[in-house]
């Protein structure tokens, strides 16, 4: 598939069909995350794949919040999730973060997550990155040490075949300039 076709195909999928995702595909998708660039090649991530039905259902309830306009209700239909945990950085990139006042971990994880979502789209799987979740109870559910941060949870699954939605994006004139701000 042409790169730009893939870019337009990837969208946040908020509804899945009842079909498990093959582990072979999950592993390909994680490979796309593993190959992502990161500051000083620190690779400060761990991808916890959840595809066990019982745990999936418990996890979905920690993403869905009926009190906040039903946010992430669609997660209840997702057959799998990738929980993205931040890991220790290497010393050089830690120093870089402090000296340059940059949050390299979030940058690195954002890049890896997009690679993951694009890889999934290339395999006709839908994803949605979710930043709204009950972090503490997800850590308890998945035995993630309390000292670590869950940055994102990505839903993953098959969905009804349909045309991608029209993308709502700022005009290029608003987000790009040449040679000066
Ligand atoms: C860091 C991050 C957090 C997000 N959190 C949520 C979320 O909790 N729930 C949700 O439905 N979508 C979430 N999204 C998806 C965005 O709403 C979506 O990417 C944006 O509206 C653009 O639409 P598109 O992904 O379909 O192109 C998140 C996206 C990102 C990058």
From TrEMBL:
Protein's name according to its UniProt entry: Nitroreductase family protein
Cross-referenced InterPro entries: Nitroreductase, Nitroreductase-like
Coiled coil ranges: none
Record-stated family: Belongs to the nitroreductase family.
Entry keywords, A to Z: Oxidoreductase
Residue ranges occupied by any Nitroreductase domain in the UniProt entry: 7-158
Listed PANTHER family: NAD(P)H NITROREDUCTASE YDGI-RELATED, NADH DEHYDROGENASE_NAD(P)H NITROREDUCTASE XCC3605-RELATED
Database matches in Pfam families: Nitroreductase
């Amino acid at each position: 598939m042409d790169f730009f076709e893939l870019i337009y195909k990837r969208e946040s999928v908020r509804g899945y069909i009842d079909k498990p995702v093959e582990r072979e595909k999950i592993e390909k998708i994680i490979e796309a995350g593993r190959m992502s660039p990161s500051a000083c090649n620190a690779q400060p991530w761990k991808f916890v794949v959840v595809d066990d039905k019982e745990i999936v259902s418990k996890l979905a309830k920690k993403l869905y919040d009926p009190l906040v306009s039903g946010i992430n209700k669609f997660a209840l239909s997702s057959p799998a999730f990738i929980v993205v945990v931040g890991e220790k950085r290497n010393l050089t990139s830690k120093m870089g973060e402090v000296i340059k006042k940059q949050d390299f971990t979030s940058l690195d994880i954002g890049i890896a997550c997009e690679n993951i979502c694009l890889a999934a789209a290339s395999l006709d799987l839908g994803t949605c990155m979710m930043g709204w979740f009950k972090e503490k109870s997800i850590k308890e559910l998945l035995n993630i040490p309390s000292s670590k941060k869950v940055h994102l949870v990505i839903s993953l699954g098959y969905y009804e075949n349909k045309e991608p939605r029209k993308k709502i994006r700022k005009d290029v004139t608003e987000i790009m300039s040449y040679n000066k701000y």
